[in-house]
């Protein structure tokens, strides 16, 4: 107990030193709530939205617009919340991004933007079977709507302007976010930070229970203390930093922003056994974890909208030892569950060797570039072959 009180005093002292975002305001400000997240996920993953593709996708877009209106957020695309995505056939539309905004209060910072986003589309109904997409990505959309509610409620005016984006067509080659960056309503170099979440309601392989993975900080390392401080409020949760190059391909909507060197953070709990199956249902979402992750993202977004310097993009990625700890922990969880996950003998040997190497590196307290390259290539094989 004592140590906690002492920590509280430090946090307060720190907060008063950093203008714009403070412990006092955190104390008064609303936060994402488990019960609201649950009802949003349950609704979005219900048969009503037909797996959020085609007609079901249009219904989901309208639902997002209604939610944004209720929250008091304004339309992003001039006087519309919708950005139609043209189809190849002239005059036809193949999808629609949904966008809302809260204007910044600072005369000097209001032309800078923080984006909180999640794709809302999923796989629809296939051969008569519904693909609910509770984790992919109703969990991310629920987070985005809850963060929008918290930032739009007016208790604390964001200094920078904030954008909330529901991307369409993520499941078909990131088409919605690719269209957005080519037709952005604001210059992309005015985007101080782009935050996106894709699958934040379960765990990697169904076994890495405590972890949410965060990619992108390698280009903006100065935001790491924001993530660590926010995560430290949730003792059950671990925010594991990973370099985006761990994934061979861009796995979600951060891709088009990464390509344009817009500072981004991608949050995900990773692929799990229900991924892209009809079993991705609301009943098996870890709602306390989803609440913690949503609160971490809310804190980071709040910080970025505040009167603080947001770091510029750095092209030379910085990968800390913390990343080796994340890879070690995730690989250990998969390894410890190798029977359940039916991991093959070759991968088991590869994993146990890599775990030994990682433990030695972590004990030594430093990782070289070539060691990291070795670990990353093994991690890619494991991610590709085990999940
Ligand atoms: Zn997804």
Could you name the key traits of this structure?
43% helix, two-stranded antiparallel sheet, 387 residues, alpha/beta, disordered N terminus
Mean pLDDT comes to: 92
Unreliable runs, pLDDT <50, ≥5 residues? 1-25
CATH architecture of the largest domain: 3-Layer(aba) Sandwich
- Beta strands, count: 11
> What string, H for helix and E for strand, traces the elements in order?
HHHHEEEEEEHEHEEHEHEHHHH
The ligands bound in this entry are:
zinc ion
Shape type:
globular
Classification by helices and strands? alpha/beta
CATH class of the largest domain, named Alpha Beta
Work out the strand percent: 5-15%
CATH superfamily of the largest domain: Zn peptidases
Helix segment tally: 12
Please give the share of residues in helix.
Answer: 40-55%
Total of domains: 2
Termini separation comes to: 41 Å
Q: How would you describe what is shown here?
A:
By secondary structure, this protein is an alpha/beta fold. It folds into two domains: 2-316, Zn peptidases (Aminopeptidase, 3-Layer(aba) Sandwich); 322-386. The chain contains twelve helices and eleven strands. It has helices at 2-17, 23-28, 34-44, 55-71, 134-152, 175-182, 224-232, 254-259, 287-305, 321-336, 345-364, 369-386, and strands at 74-75, 82-86, 93-102, 113-119, 125-126, 129-130, 161-167, 191-197, 211-215, 238-242, 264-268. The strands form two sheets. Strands 1, 2, 3, 4, 7, 8, 9, 10 and 11 form a nine-stranded mixed sheet that branches. Helix 3 crosses helix 5 (134-152), helix 3 packs across helix 9 (287-305) and helix 10 packs antiparallel against helix 11. The site of zinc ion has 7 residues, from helix 5.
């Amino acid at each position: 107990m004592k140590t906690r009180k002492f920590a509280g005093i430090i946090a307060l002292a720190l907060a008063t030193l950093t203008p714009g975002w403070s412990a006092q305001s955190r104390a008064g400000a609303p936060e994402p709530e488990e019960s609201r997240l649950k009802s949003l996920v349950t609704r979005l993953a219900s048969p009503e939205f037909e797996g959020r593709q085609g007609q079901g996708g249009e219904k989901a877009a309208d639902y997002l617009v209604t939610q944004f209106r209720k929250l008091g957020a304004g339309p992003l695309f001039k006087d519309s919340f919708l950005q139609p995505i043209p189809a190849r056939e002239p005059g036809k539309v193949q999808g629609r991004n949904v966008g809302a905004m809260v204007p910044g209060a600072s005369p000097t910072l209001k032309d800078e933007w923080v984006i909180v986003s999640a794709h809302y589309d999923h796989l629809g109904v296939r051969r008569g079977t519904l693909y609910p997409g509770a984790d992919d990505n109703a969990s991310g959309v629920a987070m985005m709507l809850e963060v929008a509610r918290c930032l739009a409620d007016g208790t604390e005016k964001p200094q920078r302007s904030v954008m909330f984006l529901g991307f369409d067509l993520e499941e078909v080659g990131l088409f919605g976010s690719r269209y957005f960056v080519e037709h952005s309503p604001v210059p992309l170099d005015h985007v101080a930070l782009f935050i996106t979440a894709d699958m934040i309601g379960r765990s990697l392989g169904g076994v890495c229970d405590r972890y949410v993975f965060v990619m992108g900080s390698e280009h903006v390392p100065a935001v790491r203390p924001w993530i660590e401080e926010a995560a430290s409020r949730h003792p059950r949760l671990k925010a594991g930093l990973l370099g985006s190059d761990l994934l061979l391909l861009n796995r979600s909507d951060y891709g088009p922003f990464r390509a344009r060197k817009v500072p981004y953070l991608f949050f995900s709990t990773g692929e799990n056994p229900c991924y892209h199956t009809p079993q991705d249902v609301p009943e098996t979402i870890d709602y306390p974890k989803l609440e913690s992750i949503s609160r971490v993202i809310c804190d980071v977004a709040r910080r970025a909208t505040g009167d603080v310097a947001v770091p510029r993009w750095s092209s030379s990625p910085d990968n800390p030892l913390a990343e080796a700890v994340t890879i070690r922990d995730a690989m250990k969880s998969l390894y410890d569950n190798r029977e359940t996950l039916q991991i093959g003998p070759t991968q088991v040997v590869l994993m146990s060797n890599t775990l030994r190497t990682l433990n030695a590196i972590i004990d030594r307290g430093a990782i070289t570039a070539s060691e990291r390259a070795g670990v990353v290539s093994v991690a890619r094989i494991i991610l590709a072959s085990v999940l």
